[in-house]
Specification:
Blueprint: H1 18-29, H2 34-51, E1 58-63, H3 69-78, E2 84-90, H4 93-109, E3 118-122, E4 135-141, H5 147-153, E5 154-165, H6 171-177, E6 195-210, H7 212-220, H8 224-227, H9 230-237, E7 241-255
Parallel strand pairs: 1-2, 1-4, 2-3, 4-5
Antiparallel strand pairs: 5-7, 6-7
The chain binds S-adenosylmethionine.
Length: about 260
């Protein structure tokens, strides 16, 4: 579904390109970020259990969902245990097409399961096509947070889950593509207006990437692809193996009552 009015587009093809979406899909399908997806599913499902109202599905919007990996993982983790109403939104039509395609394939394979399917929408976090105070949770992962909009669409007590890169995230790749590494930002996030801090979890692990394709997919799915110089990209392109640190913070905010 395309709910991005033309006047809200800053370019004719906004957001991630078809090639970036394909690279992210291959990289995530390989399971490299599975520990992140598991932590996201755990956080959403425990909030859903806390809030559970019989027969009312727990709603979750993934704002900037990319090709939909985290909602698919959440849907399989929930299975029949909890009714979920899932929506993935992204400004890139390529991301939304890829998400919808994979979701319908999954739905076809699991015809008799109660695993929830999601709605996939082209739209912008800056103007979410969602009524005020209607959602139980919003996810914003490696994305473009628009806190005022997230506060508007969440119910009082609803949860915003943000995933942000930590100081060592992909450090080894950054050391190869940049001449010097920038000093890290403070790890403390300011409390956004309309929210209270609920919980912060840090996840850190190492990945061994074998083969040039996985390394180039990782580079292609991050903003480093555009920030790196041609020489930096060439140095990464020449690698056949790379051991890399993944470090993220999962921050849970609750919409104030
Ligand atoms: C780094 S990717 C992360 C994708 C996904 N959350 C993941 O972690 O796999 C950022 C995504 O945000 C999308 N995006 C950029 N600006 C956006 C906006 N204003 N509203 C919604 N999505 C946006 C891009 O198209 C891209 O898919």
């Amino acid at each position: 579904m395309n709910l991005l009015p033309v006047q809200q587009k800053r370019s004719s093809d906004p957001g991630d390109s078809k090639a970036m979406v394909a690279a992210r899909q291959r990289f995530l399908d390989a399971g490299y970020y599975r520990p992140i997806a598991d932590a996201v599913s755990r956080a959403v499902l425990s909030q859903a259990k806390r809030q559970s109202i019989r027969d009312t599905p727990f709603s979750c919007l993934d704002a900037g969902c990319g090709e939909g990996y985290y909602l698919r993982q959440l849907a399989s983790a929930a299975q029949d245990a909890l009714p979920l109403a899932l929506m993935g939104l992204d400004i890139s039509k390529w991301a939304v097409l890829a998400a919808a395609k994979q979701d319908s394939r999954r739905g076809g394979q699991q015809e008799h399961s109660q695993t929830p399917q999601s709605q996939w929408v082209v739209g912008s976090n800056a103007h979410l096509p969602v009524q005020s105070q209607t959602l139980d949770s919003v996810l914003c992962m490696f994305g473009f947070p628009v806190m005022g909009e997230f506060a508007r669409v969440l119910k009082p007590g609803g949860m915003l889950l943000q995933i942000e890169a930590g100081p060592s995230h992909l450090r080894e790749l950054r050391e190869i593509i940049y001449p010097t590494l920038k000093p890290e930002r403070s790890s403390e996030s300011k409390v956004p207006e309309g929210f209270i801090h609920h919980h912060t979890e840090r996840l850190c692990y190492s990945l061994a990437l074998e083969g040039a394709e996985d390394i180039s997919d990782l580079l292609a799915m991050t903003p480093h692809l555009y920030r790196a110089s041609a020489e930096g990209r060439a140095r990464a392109g020449a690698l056949e193996a790379l051991s890399i640190t993944v470090e993220v913070r999962l921050v849970q905010w609750l919409r104030s009552e």
